[in-house]
Design brief:
mainly beta; Alpha-Beta Plaits; 6-stranded antiparallel beta barrel; 2 helices
């Protein structure tokens, strides 16, 4: 089967183990005041924020909201976090206000 688009979708499915879920994506709606201080290889904390019945995945740098996270596999990531798994994001590239990140499980 073939398809188009999808950007950074890497074939993850809901069957992907939470312990092996890795997402390459970018910050969505980045906060300029925070992004200006972020460097490649910085580590961001990944959390799920719930407001009413809306859940979003957010990335924090040194306790400050850096932006949201968008990915075709975002629902799987939210489910894994909801099951108690923890994730971090490493900044892999930065070009102006665009910040590329790799989300992976924290190592215990």
């Amino acid at each position: 089967m073939s398809g188009s688009g999808g950007g950074s979708f890497s074939g993850y499915s809901n069957d992907t183990s939470c312990d092996s879920l890795v997402l390459d994506t970018h910050l969505s709606s980045p906060r300029e005041d925070v992004v200006d201080r972020i460097q490649v290889d910085d580590i961001l904390a990944i959390t799920v924020s719930n407001l009413g019945n809306l859940s979003t995945v957010q990335a924090f740098w040194q306790g400050e909201l850096a932006g949201g996270v968008a990915s075709p596999s975002i629902q799987r990531l939210q489910n894994c976090i909801g099951e108690g798994h923890n994730y971090i994001a490493r900044v892999t590239a930065k070009n102006g206000g665009e910040v590329r990140i790799r989300i992976s499980p924290t190592q215990h």
